[in-house]
User: Which sequence fits this backbone?
């Protein structure tokens, strides 16, 4: 059952990443990925997992966020891992969407940005770091991640 849920999370998120990678400027990418649609769906899933763990006994009794051992207990149950994984998915997608928007704004070719998006999907912060390096090396931006 947990494997199926894990798979379903990826089925939900894959279209958003495909749009960011291959159609970053398309109107439907803006309407679907750059809007609140995905964060709200993933937030609802996250809340369901979190509630299952906290209120419905789907976690280790020592689970929590107050210490390393409590966090380890949280991730010792599949629901805790799915909760954490959903957290990663929504924030990695948020960063990926920002990368795609910023690349359009500064005029970077989508194919140059694609490796950064892939790394953001798979390794989160490494993809963001790669994108910042791409911006710097192409002269399309400095070390600052804000406009101006």
Assistant:
């Amino acid at each position: 059952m947990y494997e199926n849920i894990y798979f379903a999370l990826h089925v939900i998120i894959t279209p958003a990443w495909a749009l960011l990678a291959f159609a970053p400027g398309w109107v439907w990418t803006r309407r679907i990925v750059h809007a609140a649609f995905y964060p709200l769906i993933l937030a609802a899933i996250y809340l369901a997992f979190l509630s299952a763990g906290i209120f419905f006994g789907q976690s280790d009794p020592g689970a929590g966020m107050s210490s390393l051992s409590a966090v380890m207990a949280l991730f010792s149950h599949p629901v805790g891992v799915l909760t954490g994984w959903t957290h990663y998915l929504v924030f990695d997608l948020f960063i990926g969407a920002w990368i795609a928007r910023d690349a359009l704004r500064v005029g970077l070719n989508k194919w140059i940005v694609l490796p950064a998006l892939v790394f953001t999907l798979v390794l989160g912060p490494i993809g963001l770091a790669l994108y910042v390096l791409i911006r710097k090396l192409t002269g399309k931006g400095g070390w600052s991640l804000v406009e101006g």
Notes: Residues 102 and 147 are 9 Å apart (CA to CA).
